[in-house]
Specification:
six-stranded antiparallel sheet
């Protein structure tokens, strides 16, 4: 009887831990990075070991096109100001009023990248050593 209670308590604790640690909905981008919606057109990409600026933008572009279903010409804006500290994720939005510097070298004066350009970072980041 006591062993059954301990098993049940352990199962409840495991389920509670999983529920707290996992967002209600998370999208896995083509580069295996997790994208967490933050409401409306805002979203966050947590840090992983493969988190280069290009990898973040790749995941942002993939999420915008596949989940938010925006056109490839829609601009995505970084909302967490660079530089990104070690172990820190990046947040993005489709709202230009919330834009900060993108943290990538680009030829446009716009603070954001088009969804297509962001998603193209997947190709560039896969070629990185």
């Amino acid at each position: 009887m006591r062993a059954r209670r301990v098993e049940r308590a352990a199962a409840v604790a495991l389920v509670a831990t999983f529920a707290i640690a996992t967002p209600v909905f998370a999208f896995t981008a083509q580069n295996s990075m997790r994208v967490e919606p933050r409401g409306g057109t805002d979203f966050h990409i947590p840090y992983t070991a493969r988190s280069s600026p290009r990898a973040f933008w790749c995941a942002a572009g993939d999420y915008a096109i596949r989940v938010l279903q925006v056109s490839s010409a829609t601009r995505i804006y970084r909302t967490t100001a660079p530089p990104r500290r070690s172990g820190e994720g990046m947040s993005f939005s489709l709202d230009p009023a919330r834009a900060t510097a993108p943290g990538l070298l680009r030829l446009s004066r716009s603070p954001g990248l088009t969804a297509a350009n962001a998603r193209f970072q997947c190709e560039l980041s896969s070629a990185e050593p």
